[in-house]
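Side project, low priority. Logging it here so it doesn't get lost.
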Amino acid sequence: MTNFKLLKTPKETYDLLLELTSIDIYNKSRARQVIEHRAFFCYILRDKLKMTFQAIAKYLGEHSEIKTYHHATAINSYKQFIIYRKYEVEYWRKLESHFNVSSQFEYSQLSKLLEVQDNYDELEKNYIEALNTIKEYDIKSHDGYTQNELEYRKLNNEEKQQYDERALLVLKSFEWKKPQNEYEVITCAS
């Protein structure tokens, strides 16, 4: 047990544990050694890699023969390891000393990444629905605008400035049609 590796993933953690102990925790076994080492694995994933219990359960459910591994099972394994550790302190301390973790990756985010990967199709569907809703809203929000007003929104800043200058001239040309509030009173002398 002289190998020291910098761990980056749960797979590397499993490989190191298998290499050091020759106990395959992925087997669907109720043997005491397998259960204790599986609990140790949950402990390492939780404390060293900062994975959530849900992510631990998901990982073990996908990679081991145990397909019914839930977050409650991961919590129980984690708590049980704390008890197991009290009876063979030196063995577990020596084994744990081999599990050095790289701090470059935030493993607490792994469960979110797994959820995103699993829900990719649903997310894509929701995204498309949201885009369609935005398009519908965009069309409704322009209801009542003239075609020129809609085209104006497509112009870049320079074109908008030129448009505004020309429109100002057109608007000034309509001023002579507006009635004046002040009238000059002409008195005629008779």
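Brief comment: Strands lie at 5-7, 99-101.
Revisit when time allows.
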